[in-house]
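Entry for zinc ion complex. Fields follow.
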Amino acid sequence: MKIRITELKEDVNKLHLKANPEELDLQNEEADFNSPIVYNLTCTKSGDKFLCQGKLSTKVNLECARCLVVFSYDLKTSLDFILDVKDNQVELSSEGGDSDIKVACGEDLDINHLVREAILLALPLKPLCSLDCKGLCPVCGTDLNTSSCDCHKERSDPRWDKLKDFLKN
Ligand SMILES: [Zn+2]
Ligand SMILES: [Zn+2]
């Protein structure tokens, strides 16, 4: 994704950027990115600066941490930064700080690195296909969302045995 600095107007700029997962080097083991990444942002000029605020969205296939089913996840996150124009240069600074980029005013500003970081940070640590996913039976491996088994009726959690004894006494 690139911002054409020369095309930024004096007041408000609405940008609609799009990139493929390959361009952003997003493929990794946990997440299967298979849709374009869309970035809608507004860059508003204020003095020597452009305040840029935008929303990133894409779809990614993730494996549910409980039942191991692969499901499509709607990834949405925000990405804001400031473009500082001085001495014929544009400097991008974001909240993280370590992805600052600098280019000459006539050049395009490549924001792939920044977008990649924001997308990866927005991935859930523990993806769930649904909030009430029942997961797999720890004994026989049955997917408890689609069927049931008899395992946990017969087998109780040993951690509760002590408590049961305690309640009896
Ligand atoms: Zn699940
Ligand atoms: Zn079972």
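NOTE: Residues 137, 139-140, 142, 149, 151 surround zinc ion (ligand 2) (CB under 6 Å).
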